[in-house]
């Protein structure tokens, strides 16, 4: 059920309570200086707020923020209704989506810094569902992933940056480049199979490897830490979903140490 706060002052009180507990906990353990709470948002209506974030979606003063979010809050401090995120550097739309009772609901679109569409798909009660399409900054097709009941997504189709299709109907070779790393491996029937490697792109050094058998994780190894593990995979097919961090209302460091 949606609820509009009755006045400007009620929203101020809500924000103070919402963020006050987090600030109190941080002060108790004498962590490095964090941003001031009242510098990280602007109230623009009875239940409408603009939040300012770092690239990691931590609350940040506007002077050193990278993202601003236009959103409404319900009486419990949860996002509801339509939300729009913009890059402060060029006022480019970064994300548009909707919330219901604090959970993502309905269609979401993500955009590259160039303004090209990066991803489009649907959320249901906070979970990605159905087929999601992805595109490169050039506008060319990248991949189609199918999400099912909170499980790991199925890789349906994948194209490299030259336009060559390397996964067709769930079978082939998949990769993702991110933060100077490349995650790569084979998929069969839409699921990971065989050895998957995370390598530094600069020198192709293996940072981690994981072994799958028809989608079932068997084991993994972190090269730098010399750590083996068998509990669960640590390398994800999903792109980094930094926007989910906004739900946690975490404070960034003060501007002198932010970003």
From TrEMBL:
> What keywords does the record list, in alphabetical order?
Signal
Organism name: Hymenobacter telluris
Give the signal peptide as a residue range, or say none if absent. Answer: 1-25
Under Gene3D superfamilies, the record lists: Histone H3 K4-specific methyltransferase SET7/9 N-terminal domain (2.20.110.10)
Protein name (database record): Toxin-antitoxin system YwqK family antitoxin
> SUPFAM superfamilies recorded for this chain?
Histone H3 K4-specific methyltransferase SET7/9 N-terminal domain (SSF82185)
Record carries keyword Signal: yes
